[in-house]
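Support request from a user on the community tier.

User writes: "When I paste my structure tokens into the form, the page sometimes reloads and wipes my input. The last time it worked, I copied everything first. Here is what I submitted, just in case something in the input itself triggers the reload:"
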């Protein structure tokens, strides 16, 4: 097979062709559905047809995205490959991560147990601390039943090898939890000889990075900032519009990578026995998104395509789903043992039953925080135990990668934001938040202080307290990694004020460039 890099012009031409073919596939799938008895928008019961043979499983994890795909009704974006995957499989409307930050969220999914319970809830912490017994990564359980476990992919941007979990580990090697801490068997490639195989592939183009402008410039059909549709809580400003348009370009690049992987499965004769699971690792990296317990931070896309099961086509499931349920589902698909420590349930099980997701926000780099949330289909409760920490906490790393925040700060200081837009820039957070999701999906009207909701609020408050007890950490070891972005930002402020002013004006100077300037300065100082 010819490997096509999504960064070159050949990929652009292939992407155009792929879009045409996948749109045709999507149309044909819709015709098939409409000619049968199941509507593509119908909410149906859970799939019960699971083949006895061990399937291959590919877990595609797009970084930092909310439900920002065409099949979820997200405006302006073109994601024909994922839309077709949803039309051929099952799309989950109410899937949520247990933490809106990458490493705690990934820790929960890698173990299948809530990150607070396993003491992996603080971002970039306990990296040299082994998991407490009886917890093990789910890839170890897959290996026990004969799976080859693969990390990354040779054709995606950056090779997709990210692990980023908050316990002692290394990407490749055996696991025993005491002297060996390898999570996967091999990098980048799956073959027929590896069957049954499990591959976890990170699609990192959607993560904030210095590549965004280049990817956007090379897009076959770039988004015009003047034409994008902004949420109500985002200011209508040229910097904000440009940032939003570039995000849409990253989503479409990522959609092309999904097509490339599916094409490889076809060419290798593996497509008919390979389950594809597509999710986001946490919400989009923008205001109210990544790092926050609001909907754009917790609500993720989840699509499962099982080619072996003709009954699971064009389904939409509305149950509330936790990211740890996906881990349990992978284990059940593989025929692996479901350990008692799991806090997730297999989605394909007839007994699947979840009403709530318990989510948490804790340390993120240098910003200490403690907030908890209960999410149901219709309601959201948030308890902010540190209300004095504002939403806009000026976290050093984010200063390099959130031009919309920089622009809206200036507008807020000038009194030019609407009340809804200004919420993010208040000096404190409310101690409690309570939202009616059916009528307020953007979570803009806090009902916590309205007397008519006092009884419902108390029910969710008590439920959060019960989860606090159930998910109490197994240990109190706390070894966070120093956030080097703090040093880099201080260096830019003091030694490169011109670059810092560009940041304040909503330009991305590039964290990598800034970090290299700091390293050069440190090296000269040390010499």
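"...and here is what came back when it finally went through:"
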């Amino acid at each position: 097979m010819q490997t096509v890099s999504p960064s070159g012009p050949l990929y652009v031409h292939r992407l155009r062709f792929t879009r045409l073919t996948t749109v045709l596939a999507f149309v044909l799938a819709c015709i098939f559905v409409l000619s049968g008895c199941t509507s593509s928008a119908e909410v149906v019961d859970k799939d019960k047809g699971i083949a006895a043979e061990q399937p291959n499983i590919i877990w595609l994890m797009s970084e930092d995205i909310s439900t920002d795909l065409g099949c979820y009704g997200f405006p302006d974006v073109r994601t024909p490959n994922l839309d077709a995957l949803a039309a051929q499989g099952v799309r989950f409307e109410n899937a949520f991560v247990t933490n809106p930050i990458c490493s705690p969220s990934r820790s929960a999914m890698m173990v299948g147990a809530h990150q607070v319970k396993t003491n992996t809830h603080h971002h970039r912490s306990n990296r040299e601390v082994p998991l407490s017994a009886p917890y093990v990564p789910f890839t170890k359980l897959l290996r026990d039943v004969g799976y080859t476990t693969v990390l990354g992919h040779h054709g995606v941007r950056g090779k997709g090898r990210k692990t980023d979990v908050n316990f002692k580990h290394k990407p490749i090697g055996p696991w025993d939890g005491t002297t060996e801490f390898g999570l996967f068997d091999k990098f980048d490639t799956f073959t027929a000889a590896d069957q049954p195989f499990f591959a976890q592939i990170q699609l990192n183009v959607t993560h904030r990075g210095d590549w965004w402008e280049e990817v956007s410039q090379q897009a076959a059909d770039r988004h015009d900032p003047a034409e994008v549709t902004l949420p109500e809580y985002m200011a209508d400003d040229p910097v904000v519009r440009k940032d939003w348009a570039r995000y849409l370009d990253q989503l479409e690049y990522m959609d092309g990578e999904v097509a490339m992987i599916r094409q490889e499965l076809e060419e290798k004769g593996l497509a008919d026995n390979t389950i594809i699971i597509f999710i986001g690792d946490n919400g989009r990296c923008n205001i109210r998104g990544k790092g926050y317990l609001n909907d754009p931070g917790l609500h993720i896309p989840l699509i499962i395509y099982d080619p072996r099961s003709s009954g699971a086509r064009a389904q939409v499931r509305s149950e509330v789903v936790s990211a740890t349920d996906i881990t349990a589902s992978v284990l059940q698909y593989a025929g692996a043992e479901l350990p008692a420590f799991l806090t997730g349930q297999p989605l394909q099980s007839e007994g699947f039953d979840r009403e709530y997701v318990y989510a948490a926000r804790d340390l993120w780099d240098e910003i200490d925080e403690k907030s908890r949330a209960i999410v149901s289909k219709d309601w959201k409760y948030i308890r902010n135990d540190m209300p004095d920490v504002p939403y806009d906490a000026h976290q050093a790393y984010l200063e390099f990668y959130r031009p919309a925040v920089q622009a809206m700060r200036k507008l807020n200081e000038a009194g030019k934001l609407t009340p809804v837009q200004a919420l993010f820039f208040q000096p404190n957070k409310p101690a409690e938040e309570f939202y009616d999701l059916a009528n307020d999906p953007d979570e803009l009207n806090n009902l916590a202080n309205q007397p008519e909701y006092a009884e419902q609020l108390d029910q969710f408050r008590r439920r959060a307290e019960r989860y606090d007890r159930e998910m109490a950490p197994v240990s109190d070891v706390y070894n966070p990694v120093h956030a080097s972005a703090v040093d880099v930002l201080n260096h830019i402020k003091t030694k490169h004020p011109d670059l810092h002013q560009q940041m304040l004006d909503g330009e991305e100077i590039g964290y990598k460039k800034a970090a290299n300037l700091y390293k050069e300065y440190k090296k000269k100082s040390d010499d």
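Agent notes: The reload is a front-end session timeout and is unrelated to the input. Residues 56-355 form a domain with the Alkaline Phosphatase, subunit A fold (CATH 3.40.720.10). The first strand starts at residue 56 and ends at 62. Escalated to web team.
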